[in-house]
Amino acid sequence: MLHEVSSIDWIGFGIFVVVVLVLDLFVFHRNSRESTLRESAVWTVIWCSLALAFNGLIWYRFGGKAAIQFLTGYLVEWSLSMDNVFVFAVVFGYFMVPLKYQYRVLFWGILGAIVMRLTFILLGAELIERWHWILYIFGVFLIFTGIKLAMHKEEEEPDLNKKWVLRLARRWLRVSKENHGEKFFVRENGLLCATPLFLVLLVIETTDVMFAIDSVPAIFAITKVPYIVFTSNIFAILGLRALYFLLAGVIDMFRYLNYGLSAVLVFVGIKMLLPEAWHLPDWASLAIIGSLLGSSIVASIIAKKLEGPEPPAPAEPDMHLPPAASEEPVAADRPPVS
User: Fold this and answer.
1) Largest CB tally within 10 Å, which of 31, 111, 230, 271?
2) Residue 317: φ, ψ to 5°
3) Lowest-confidence region among 75-84, 106-115, 294-303
4) Which of 184, 31, 204, 182 is nearest to 109 (CA)?
5) Bridge partners, residue 175, by sequence
6) Between these two residues, 51 and 173, which has the higher pLDDT value?
7) Residue 315 reports pLDDT greater than 60
8) Spatial contact of 239 and 80, defined as CB atoms under 8 Å apart
9) Residue 107 in contact with residue 205, Cβ under 8 Å?
10) What is the pTM of this model?
11) Residue 146 confidence (pLDDT) above 70
12) How far apart are CA 219 and CA 75, in angstroms?
């Protein structure tokens, strides 16, 4: 039963996360290099397999209901993570970060995301425990976000250089004017300086905070158990880097995914608003969410095939220092935003 979640379960999962992150950074990706499509596909399969294996452990430990809730939560968080992929591609393209350094930025960005997600989830669980009516606020917020996502049209790319985090960083940090490879901090003339790559990391971190505001309430519509919420969330985040390198080059193939995500957010929002009047079995929620996402992906792939092949993209430029707000950003080969 879910009430049997103990400190041992939390500690055990925490140890697992630390071990896989250490192996990932210091063994499998010790040196900065470009990830191949084949390698990214293999790692995506590995992370998904680990999530499914953990789902089997949840089934054995807490029963079928908890396992279905975990799988549904993982599917929702994994699909919302795909939206992160689009944003990451824009950020890296805008600041012209070489492919071989992108993995390092995502590693530390995701490490920060794990800490932020745990904070958001524990805070959300505490709020729901104290004031149950806050679920209705979450529900309205998710419906509003879903409708906004469906209606959003990206006519021109955002000026990421105007983000408040970059303004604060330039104001309070000493920023190097030269690139220093994969380093986030260096010493110049005896003074500690942040590198341009560290500024990109700040943008990635703050972007994930905005995604957490959507994703954490969404999974609370599926289960109120913090352990299931957190573990499904983290497994989706752990596989995000491999998913990014697998999909970054074919982003335009998922042009209709935002409509699928929009439908999912509206669906879980309605579930929050009508918990008694519209009570669905957990398996039915899983089937509906899977169908909404699957149909949007299939429609995107079909539309892409009907258009035919595109001309090859130009070579990737070197990373440049993000320009000051008053300067004109350096032109870059920026991938489109779906």
Assistant:
1) 230
2) -80, 170
3) 75-84
4) 204
5) 194
6) 51
7) no
8) no
9) no
10) 0.74
11) yes
12) 10
- Burial (0-12, 13-18, 19+ Cβ within 10 Å), 246: buried
Which residue type sits at 102? Q
- Please check the confidence at residue 56 and state whether its pLDDT lies above 90: yes
- What is d(CA 142, CA 51) in angstroms, rounded to the nearest whole number? 25
Cα atoms found within 13 Å of the Cα of residue 9, Cβ hemisphere only: 17
- Residue 203: strand, helix, or coil: helix
Residues sharing a CB contact under 8 Å with residue 204, sequence separation 6 or more, in sequence order: 88, 91, 105, 106, 109
DSSP 188: E
DSSP SS3 for 193:
strand
Residue type, position 321, single letter: L
Residue ranges with strand state E in the chain: 185-188, 191-194
- What is the identity of the amino acid at 242? A
Mean pLDDT of 219-245: 85
The rounded distance, in Å, linking the Cα atoms of 235 and 228 is 11
Q: H-helix or E-strand containing 204? A: helix 196-220
Helix, strand, or coil (residue 256): coil
On whether the CB atoms of residues 85 and 244 are closer than 8 A, the answer is: yes
Check residue 116 and give its pLDDT: 82
* Location of structure tokens 């920023």: 175
Closest Cα partner for 261 from 230, 300, 233, 304? 300
Query: Would you mind telling me the total number of residues written for the chain in this entry?
Result: 338
Q: Which two three-digit tokens encode residue 61? A: 């430990």
Is the CB of residue 269 less than 8 Å from the CB of residue 142? yes
Which tokens in the block code for residue 199? 């500024």
Mean pLDDT of 298-318: 67
pLDDT above 70 (res 309)? no
* Positive/negative CA dihedral, 69, 73, 76, 78: negative
DSSP lists the bridge partners of residue 165 as none
| Structure tokens belonging to residue 268 | 């879980």
Which distant-in-sequence residues (6+ apart) come within 8 Å of 25 by Cβ? 107
